[in-house]
Structure formats: C-alpha cells, structure tokens
C-alpha cells in the first residue's frame, strides 16, 4: 500500500471543516487532511504564534499539496477566495481537491471516483460537488490508520514539557501498572529543562518508547501534540496521561477489563485524586452528572463529564470520530464530537492522581480562562453542526412539531445561564419547529442576556402577539428596564414522552456504569455487623424479582475485595433466600460512595448511600 498523501489547508474555516471534510477527503483520495485556521488561532494559539504552528505542520506532515484560503498564496499553493462562511470554505476545498484529482495533481483513491466526477455539474457547482463527495464518503468505510504492529495491546501516552520536578513520579507510576501487555510512549514536546535526561534514565526499560519534537504545546495547540502521540501509538487501546500526573497501579487492569466486558466501548474514564506540587492529596473528583448513551451529548453540552487524564480510548473510537482539534480544550471538543457516535463508560474507581501546580497548563487562572473561552467556542461550533435529534436520539423519527419545540426549550433552558448565545441557538430551532410565543419569549431573554438588544426586541415582539408576558417583556426591553424574568418551560408531558421513548430504545443502550438503560440499578452498601438487616434486604430483593427481572442490585466492594464481599453475601443469604431465583446481583469495584454520581432521579437507577435497608426495601417495593 502506498503512503497516504497529505493535504494542508490554511485559512478561515479550515479547522471548522476538518473533522467532516478531512474524513471525506481521506475516504475519497487516500489523503490525510490537516487544517489550520489563523482566525481561530487568535483564541487557540497563545503568544500570537500562528506562523510557528504552520512551520511545524509543514515540517511534521510534509504535505503533498497546500490549499491557502486567502489572498496571499504561498509557493506551490492553490489559492481560493477569502470567505467568512465555513460551509462555503468546505465546498471550495472539496471542489479544489476534486479538480486536482482530475488533473492528476493529487493521487487518487484506491477505488475509482468516476461517479463523483460524473455527478458534478459542468459549471463547477461547488454545492453539488461537496454534497456528492459527502454522500460518497458517508457510504464508504472509514480508512484505518496504518499500524504495523498491534502488540502491545495498550499504549499509555505521556505528553511531557518541562516537567522535571514531577517526571520521575510520573514515569515510575506509568511503568508500575498491574496490567502486563502495554507500552509507555513518552512524547517530549521540546523540553528545555532536565526532562530529556530523566526520560533517558528509563531508556533501558523495554516497555518505554520515547519521541522528541520541537515544542508546539507552548503555542496552545495541544491537539497537535496529542495527535502526534496518538498516531505513534501501537496499542489498540490508548490511555492518556499528563507528564506531571500519577497513574495508580490498577488503572490499566480496570480499564482493559471494561473493554473486555463491552467490546463496543469507545472511551473508558474514571475518578481520581487531586494532588499538589509535592504530591499530597487535596481532594478527589468523580462523575458530576450520571449520563447514559442517549443523554450523553445534551449532558456534555452543559458540563464536561470526562476527566482527560483518566481516559482510555479504543483505536476504533479515533477512527470513527477523527483526531483532536484546536487548542487547549481539545479534549472537551472531542467528547462533544463523539457524543452519540461512540459509547462512553465511567468506572467509579480512582484511577489517577491529577496534579495542580502553578505551571499547569489548564489549572492556573490564565489557563482556566483560556480553556473556558475555547470550551464555549467548541460548544457553539458543535451545536451548529448537530441537529436536535442528535441531542434527543430517543425522539429520532418523530415528526410532531410540538415535541421538537419542547426539546429545544429544554436544551436552551439548561444552557442559558452559562451561555445565552448558545441557548438562543436552540430557542431559534424551537421557534422554527413550531411558531410559539414561548420559544420567542425565551429567545428574547437569551438575546438580552447576550447583549443583543435589537434581536431581543424583535423576538419579544413575536412573543407579545401570543401572551401578556411577552407584551410586558417587549415593553421592558424597549424601555431598557428589564427585571428578573421566568423562562417558559416545556409542556409538562414532554418528560413523559421522553421517558416513554427512552423505554422503547433502551434494549441496547447503556448507562454510565455499563448497564442497559432498560435495567434499573440500585447501588446499596449493607453495613457490617448487622446480619438481620442484610437478610431483610435479601428477602426484599428475592420477593420482588425473578431471575429475568430487568432490575439489578449493585453491591459495591468499598475496598474489601470481591472474594470477601462474595463470601459475606453468601453467608447472609444462607437459609434465607435462593439468590439464583432473584434478579441480578452484581459485585462491582467501587472504593467509596463519593465516587458514584449523584442520584439522577430517573426510573433507571438509584443510589442508597447510607446502607439504609428500609430505603432499599422501599425502592424494591416501588419497582414491583
């Protein structure tokens, strides 16, 4: 197989189109597309160093062709008109690539693209060219990265830049996992301190592989640093790790077990400790919102649910979603891109120690401000690319306009306090789904909070035609005297409709813990030394379930170990109940109840944190 050709696109909109356009060009031309957007670089690139990034891209990828979307073409480039419309840019690049293929300037695909060329209009209709190419891509298999050696099974990717004070602890922990079949790939992003010599001290370990490059992370383009490591990784599973963090000894063992249990899993993540510069633990982190496969994207749109230092990717997930993009918050962007396309699983275990110190890229005040700015931009970007049914896959295929109107209100109301501009986007979708004074009213409020006075007044005028509240808001906006307002909520039966739709789709959709959405789970810790309560709980479980019941009792080991918990459970059940006749009882490695997410208040699960058997018995009775 010939080496894939590389296309570098430079200009406004290039990176906004990268995941979609790059995938379709790769499928159609056996070409890897790399995009760089100088306009986006104003927020994603620090110290105003976009030229340094371009220089690095050219040196690293050695593109066979460069497309420059501006008025200042470089040597050997194809110049396209400047455009502020990312969709127009996508069409222009697609047309340019097709034209170059036809002229023989770019190596063609393994399969003929005659149907693509034939479908194009003679007048070079860019919209048609892009649409045909996109349809062709979506029907073609995703090209797999070329990995010459699939052993070892796991790669632990450690990205390092000037982390001399912490690097020994990081590498020692990375090399000490209880799992056996893995490599540690250390990517040194041009360190200028003693980090290279520390890495060299571990070069005799056959498990460790190191790569050094000119610094790029200092520009803020951590996506390019991570992608370099991902492309060099040999494992089918890739565990992420910072050069100043610590991996706990059981991490890989626990995460690989999750992938073995669910071969279709895309990303596995978990909890961990916060540590300071000296390595002292300063608290812990866990899952803030309980998600499932159906709700993941809409939950992620509001808050980042995934801790990057605890993540293990499957290589297949990267093939499906594409590489990381754009800047410091590139991990959050990837989770948003991946929502609804791959399956995520949270392990209620502490897998890593995440270090916070005054030189950290993402935990300093400056770094957090940059990450917040980028995260907001990524949320808006993904929202523009997604449809409402991506956020509510339970409702996919439904045509009732009122249902989609309420879905849009639900999303907008979740987001308005954090990002009124994004909330306005969803309210607008609601207004388009169904003309409603409620959507127009909420849209007016969102525009007002975003400082868009004229748009707020226009939306309020529409709301005024349908309600006295709308008229009052319209008058207040015109006078510049808006007080606190209450948003319109979805109709009361929307949650019921959503719940019914979820029940119909839950047979193959999974929750954060790997259980199916259609299965109700209770996490219960029975207290030691209270055998009477334990037996009471077992009797309640047996009385209200059968072996085929879609209900599971999850028995956390709380650090005691699987064998000890199993023996205790069997002893409590002795001469009381026949466990084989009851619903599923699962023993899971959960070190502490604080690692479990808050009770979602959903019919699919509950958490009994205190070992209150009466509460558990009541839950079982309600389920019955």
Describe it.
With 624 residues, the protein is an alpha/beta fold. It has 24 helices and 17 strands. The strands form three sheets. Strands 5, 6, 7, 8, 9, 10, 11, 12 and 13 form a nine-stranded mixed beta sheet that branches. A four-stranded parallel beta sheet has the order 2-1-3-4, sandwiched between helices. The radius of gyration is 27 Å and the shape is flat. Residues 70-87 and 104-149 have low confidence and may be disordered.
Descriptive terms for the model:
alpha/beta, four-stranded parallel β-sheet
Write the layout of secondary structure elements.
Elements lengths: L4 E7 L6 H12 L1 E6 L4 H4 L5 H12 L3 E5 L7 E3 L6 H18 L10 H6 L6 H13 L15 E7 L3 H11 L7 E7 L6 H7 L6 E5 L9 H11 L4 E6 L3 E2 L3 H11 L3 E11 L5 E5 L10 H5 L11 E3 H7 L8 H9 L4 E13 L9 H21 L2 H4 L9 H15 L4 H14 L3 H13 L3 H12 L3 H12 L14 H12 L14 E5 L6 H14 L6 E6 L5 H12 L10 E5 L16 E4 L4 H11 L1
Concise synopsis of the structure shown:
The protein is α/β, with parallel strands linked by helices.
């Amino acid at each position: 197989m010939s080496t894939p050709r590389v296309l570098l696109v430079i200009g406004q909109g290039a990176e906004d189109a990268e995941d979609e356009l790059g995938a379709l060009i790769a499928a159609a031309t056996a070409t890897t597309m790399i995009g760089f957007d100088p306009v986006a670089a104003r927020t994603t690139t620090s110290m105003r160093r976009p030229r340094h990034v371009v220089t690095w891209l050219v040196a690293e990828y050695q593109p066979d062709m460069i497309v420059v979307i501006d008025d200042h073409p470089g040597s050997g480039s194809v110049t396209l008109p400047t455009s502020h419309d990312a969709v127009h840019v996508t069409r222009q690049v697609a047309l340019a690539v097709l034209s170059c293929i036809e002229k023989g300037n770019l190596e063609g695909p393994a399969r003929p693209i005659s149907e693509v060329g034939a479908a194009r209009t003679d007048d070079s209709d860019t919209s048609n060219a892009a649409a045909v190419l996109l349809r062709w891509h979506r029907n073609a298999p995703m090209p797999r990265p070329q990995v010459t050696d699939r052993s070892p099974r796991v790669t632990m990717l450690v990205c390092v830049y000037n982390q001399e004070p912490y690097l020994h602890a990081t590498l020692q922990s990375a090399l000490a996992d209880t799992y056996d079949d893995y490599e540690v790939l250390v990517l040194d992003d041009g360190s200028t301190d003693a980090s290279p010599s520390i890495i060299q001290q571990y070069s005799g370990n056959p498990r460790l592989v190191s790569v050094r490059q000119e610094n790029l992370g200092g520009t803020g383009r951590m996506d390019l640093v991570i992608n370099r490591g991902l492309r060099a990784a040999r494992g089918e599973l890739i565990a992420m790790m910072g050069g100043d963090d610590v991996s706990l000894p059981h991490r890989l063992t626990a995460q690989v077990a999750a992938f073995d249990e669910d071969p279709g899993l895309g990303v596995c993540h978990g909890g961990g400790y916060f540590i300071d510069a000296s390595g002292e633990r300063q608290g812990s982190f866990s899952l803030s919102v309980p998600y499932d496969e159906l709700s993941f994207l809409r939950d992620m749109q509001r808050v980042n649910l995934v801790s990057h230092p605890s993540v293990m990717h499957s290589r297949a997930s990267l093939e499906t979603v594409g590489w990381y993009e754009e800047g410091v918050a590139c991990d959050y962007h990837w989770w948003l891109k991946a929502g609804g396309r791959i399956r995520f699983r949270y392990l209620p275990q502490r897998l890593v120690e995440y270090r916070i110190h005054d030189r950290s890229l993402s935990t300093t005040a400056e770094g957090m401000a940059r990450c917040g700015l980028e995260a907001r931009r990524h949320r808006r970007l993904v929202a523009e690319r997604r449809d409402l049914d991506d956020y509510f896959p339970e409702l996919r295929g439904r045509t009732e306009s009122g249902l989609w109107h309420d879905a849009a209100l639900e999303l907008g109301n979740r987001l308005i306090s954090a990002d009124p501009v994004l909330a306005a986007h969803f309210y607008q979708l609601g207004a388009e789904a169904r003309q409603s004074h409620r959507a127009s009213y909420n849209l007016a409020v969102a525009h007002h909070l975003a400082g868009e006075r004229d748009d707020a007044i226009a939306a309020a005028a529409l709301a005024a035609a349908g309600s006295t509240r709308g008229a009052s808001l319209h008058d207040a906006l015109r006078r510049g005297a808006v007080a606190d307002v209450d948003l319109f909520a979805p109709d009361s039966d929307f949650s019921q409709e959503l719940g019914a739709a979820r029940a119909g789709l839950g047979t193959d959709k999974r929750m954060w813990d790997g259980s199916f959405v259609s299965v109700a789970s209770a996490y219960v810790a029975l207290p030691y030394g209270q055998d009477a309560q334990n037996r009471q709980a077992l009797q309640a479980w047996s009385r209200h379930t059968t072996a085929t019941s879609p209900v599971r009792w999850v028995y956390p080991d709380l650090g005691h170990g699987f064998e000890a918990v199993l023996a205790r459970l069997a002893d409590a059940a002795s001469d009381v109940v026949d466990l084989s006749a009851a619903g599923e009882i699962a023993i899971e490695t959960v070190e502490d109840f604080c690692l479990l997410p808050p009770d979602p208040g959903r019919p699919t699960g509950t958490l009994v944190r205190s070992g209150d058997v009466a509460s558990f018995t009541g839950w079982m009775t309600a389920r019955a």
